[in-house]
Each structure stands twice: as C-alpha cells, then as structure tokens.
C-alpha cells in the first residue's frame, strides 16, 4: 500500500474535537481540493454553506436530531446540490432551458458528493477529522429556510471538521467480493453471512463491547419504516420535479 491507499483505508467518523480552530487558509485549500473532483459536463453543480454563526449552529444541532458535534466541531459545512447557478448561466445566453429533470437532480447530487469526498480525504491527509451529517435531511425545509437556500438548491448533507479528540476504531467493510462483481450480479448470501459475523465480533471487541448486533440487524431501522418520506415533496417544491 502507498500512503494514499493507507489513508483512505484508515477513515473513521470523528465526533469529538479539540478546542482548536482549523486555519482559514487550510479550509480554503480543502475546498479547492474539493473543486478538483470530477464533475458531470463541467457543471460544478454544488455550493457549500460554511456555518460560522453560533446561533445557526445551535439550531442545526436540533434540526439534525441533537447531534451536538455539529456545534462543537471547528467548522461545519452544509453541502448543497445546486442547479440554480448553471440554469441561470445557460438562460443568460438567451436560449430556452428546461429545469426539473430527474437527471439534473442526479447530476447535482453526484457532483456535490464527489466534491465532499475530495474534501474529506484532503482534510484527513492534514490530520483533520470529519463526520458526515445525513441528519441535515431530517428537516430539509427548515434547513433551507435557515440558510436562505433558493430554488433549485437543496441541502444533501453536512460535514463536521476539526482536530480529533478521540481515536475510534476503523469500522469493517463488506468483503470486496460482495461489491466487486464479475460480469453479473450473483448471490450475496455467503458474503452477507460472513460480514454479519465480522460485525458481531467488531461490536463485541471494540471499546465498551456492550453492543450485541450484526450488520443485518443494524439495517432494520433503515428499512422497516418510510425513512424521510418528506424528501420527494420537498425536492419537487425546490424545483427538482423529477420529470
């Protein structure tokens, strides 16, 4: 393994941070690194809201389900899928434009996700820990209002950044054979069963060791209910009509 691969395989979500600021110059470089990610047709369909106001951060703690590290991290970024800028740029040429296409939603969501992962990797290479916050989508309308997000822009996730104040274990991943398939999909049963045992042992061995579960059991809360069923209506209202 080279240093880049070693870094990628060492990722952990960091939720406890030192009371130490990330230098502004470094944060700017991290964002520039994010901008170097691949982008569909050079659209660059993303924007980041850097939330520096303490009151806004405290409100986002509540909107994300009480995740206190949203407030305690050095920096908090809200990554937005943004078709507004490109739609307006295309419209400024005098040509007619079509908005609300499902493909536009997919392109913007993929673009911002690739950008964010570049930022995450760049941050970790500098000793900065990160934690993605999908809880931004718990209350996307309230988040949009709080951050004054216009039409054709929606908040996809947040990211806490800061210098780690703890050293959590690296969580195992599925066997590579489960995700790297040759020529056809095939049967995952053997790989899932093996991974269930891996995760059971991980939960028992990690610090504390008081969680009795496996991978399949941990997925149940995500699939036994209509999770974030408000998202479709919210996205349509935001101009992503999925036509």
UniProtKB/TrEMBL annotation:
Keywords: Flavoprotein, FMN, NADP, Oxidoreductase. SUPFAM superfamilies: FMN-dependent nitroreductase-like. InterPro entries: Flavin_OxRdtase_Frp, Nitroreductase, Nitroreductase-like. Transmembrane segments: none annotated. Pfam families: Nitroreductase. The keyword Lipid biosynthesis does not apply. Its EC number is 1.5.1.38. Signal peptide: none annotated. One of its GO terms (molecular function) is FMN reductase (NADPH) activity. Residues 9-163 form the Nitroreductase domain. Belongs to the flavin oxidoreductase frp family. NCBIfam families: PRK10765.1. This is Oxygen-insensitive NADPH nitroreductase. It comes from Vreelandella sedimenti. The gene is nfsA.
């Amino acid at each position: 393994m080279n240093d880049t691969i070693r870094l990628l395989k060492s990722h952990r979500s960091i939720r406890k941070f030192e009371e130490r600021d990330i230098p502004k110059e470094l944060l700017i470089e991290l964002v520039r690194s994010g901008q170097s990610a691949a982008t569909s047709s050079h659209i660059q369909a993303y924007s980041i809201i850097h939330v520096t106001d303490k009151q806004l951060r405290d409100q986002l703690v509540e909107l994300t389900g009480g995740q206190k590290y949203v407030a305690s991290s050095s920096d908090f970024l809200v990554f937005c899928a943004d078709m507004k800028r490109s739609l307006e740029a295309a419209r400024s040429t005098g040509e007619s434009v079509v908005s609300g296409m499902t493909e536009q939603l997919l392109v913007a969501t993929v673009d911002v996700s690739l950008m964010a992962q570049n930022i995450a990797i760049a941050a970790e290479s500098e000793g900065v820990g990160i934690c993605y916050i999908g809880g931004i989508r718990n209350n996307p309308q309230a988040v949009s209002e709080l951050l004054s997000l216009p039409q054709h822009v929606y908040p996809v996730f947040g990211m806490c950044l800061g210098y780690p104040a703890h050293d959590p274990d690296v969580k195992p991943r599925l066997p590579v054979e489960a995700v790297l398939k040759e020529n056809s999909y095939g049967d995952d049963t053997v790989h899932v069963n093996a991974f269930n045992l891996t995760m059971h042992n991980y939960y028992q061995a990690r610090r504390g060791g008081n969680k009795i579960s496996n991978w399949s059991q941990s997925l149940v809360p995500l699939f036994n209910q209509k999770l974030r069923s408000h998202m479709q209506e919210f996205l349509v209202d935001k101009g992503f009509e999925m036509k």
